[in-house]
Design brief:
The radius of gyration is 23 Å and the shape is globular. The strands form two sheets. The chain has a seven-stranded mixed beta sheet, with helices on both faces. It is of the alpha/beta class. It contains twelve helices and eleven strands. 34% of the residues lie in helices and 16% in strands. It folds into two domains: 40-256, Aspartate Aminotransferase, domain 2 (3-Layer(aba) Sandwich), CATH 3.40.640; 258-388, Aspartate Aminotransferase, domain 1. Bound molecules: pyridoxal-5'-phosphate. Residues 85-87, 111, 158, 183, 185, 205, 207, 217, 219, 337-338 line the site of pyridoxal-5'-phosphate. Pfam families: Cys_Met_Meta_PP (PF01053). It is an enzyme of class 4 (lyase).
Length: 390
Amino acid sequence: MTDRKTLQTALIHHDYEAPGGFGAFPPAIHHASTVLFENVAALRSGDWKDKSGYTYGLHGTPTTFTLEARLAAIEGGTHCLLAPSGLAAISMVDFALLKTGDDVLLPDNVYHPSRVLGNWLQESMGVSARYYDPLVGAGIAELIAPNTRLIWTEAPGSVSMEVPDLPAICAAAHARGVVVALDNTWSAGIALRAFDLGVDIVVQALTKYQSGGADVLMGAAITRDDVLHAKLSGSHMRLGLGVGADDAYLVMRGLPTLKLRFDAHDAAARRVAAWLKARPEIVRVLHPAFEDCPGHTTWKRDFTGAGGLFSVLFDARYSEARTDRFVDSLKLFRIGYSWGGPNSLAVPYRMAGIRRDWMDAGTLVRFNIGLEDPADLIADIERALSTLTD
Ligand SMILES: Cc1ncc(COP(=O)(O)O)c(C=O)c1O
């Protein structure tokens, strides 16, 4: 065979290689399903668990390894695995640690699809999923059964905003050899050092603050523990939880501004929440930095900041139809799920599956404060509030 190729083959096999030594700030975006090996011996020695090399696009590329390393560093962890959504990262943890006959404890205010997953594991896989009051603290010890393998926490719960006592829950769990996983999305890993408080696995929905653009879905499971990481890697591989290179790049692109954006969301949200607190229509501001919020003192002890997400209770004298009309009347705030992007959002919630006496005081509306000028957001709310009574 000569080196001469037909045009068809030459379109696929090309000789040019760009010179090395190219330097730029943005990381390269590596697209690959197939990863090439130098020879058969290299292929045979390939190990997808070892991030010192590459085996297949699903198991990592320089782009995804770089994002994983950066996320682990932000959170204070040593290992990170990406998943195509925050919920996929949650399922990676569940499938890594739970099997038939095991028990998992979840806070009753947990991110609702995580609860749906827990119920599904119970109905179809013979895992028992039980729910606890997130303010249970050290009392979680009484709920731990001999077959409890995993305790989920969420700090704070992303609708009722209750802040759990993580050190107390972790101490009780570890005394019984139980793993604690935290959905740390609200703090973006910026305002809570979860591993220092005893948490074993942190999950982030990178869809929110890390991406910052409301334009990409991704999740991550981060740990400091080699054994847990190996279990998570097995689950990641079995479930095929790869992420696209362009999406990984989009998330990476958000990281340099993550803290600046988070702090801006935080300052604006506290300003809007303080304004709402002074309004006669509002009976309770469920923002962890405010005293009204269950778990506020725990937030003060453990957190160094807050994000843009909080809820309020409208006085019970306003019917749900009225508060719905309030939300419909907002102009800058749009109606939609998620948070962490530049646009403000408002959603009325009926808290499925949880009961607290304080909820009787009124109807809950959750605000995600974006990056607009808070004065404009307050003016928008003030105008919409007039629809409650007219
Ligand atoms: C607290 C929390 N965790 C996890 C998720 C899941 O993230 P994703 O939408 O990327 O699946 C969400 C999404 O709304 C969330 O609010």
